[in-house]
Amino acid sequence: MRWHRGAARASAAAIVVAGVALTACGIEPDSAPRNIPVDQRAQIEPTDVDAGESTGTSRVFMLTEGGEDGQRLLRSVLRDVPTTSTEVLQALFVGPNAEELEEGLSTQLPPEVQLISARNVAGTLNVDLSPEILELQSSALRYAVAQIVYTADELDGVRSVRLRVDGENQAWPAGRGELIDEPLTVYDFAGFAESGQPAYPAIPSDQP
User: Fold this and answer.
1) Where do the domains of the chain lie?
2) Model pTM score
3) 44-53, 70-79, 164-173: which range is least confident on average?
């Protein structure tokens, strides 16, 4: 009985010592907001593991960071999904993957927005969306619409895109902010995407 009491006392003392040690090593709360170092920000930024790697043959368009002039541009990235309109647009709506986030790519499409349907009718892709898309402000909505239009333009047989919300036609802001209630094309968003055109070759000089 004496041995059991001694063992119990020793165990209790060990628990107290461990508790003190844990308290001493605990993280103290900050007394005021502080900036998070740049190299640690990527660890807490939300990522979507379902975005998939940047491989495959299907292309979706994300947004770059603003350059010196503050202008953001669309950049195409690869997705390993079937080249059907539904699969490709759903891949677009998932957003950038972790690697693309580190490169500064993002999306203006709200994570809550849902693709209801996408049907190609005589070259016009009719895209029906959930109402969350209309919660975006004018500038953000313009970029979100451009992402959809440029992504759809990569699909075979698609020449224009008509966007609807819950089956109802809407007027959408184009590149200069004007509202258009007709099918949209990439030409309505001229200058929104990074140029994929290679540099012109040097003009050959006359050889003697």
Assistant:
1) 40-189
2) 0.70
3) 44-53
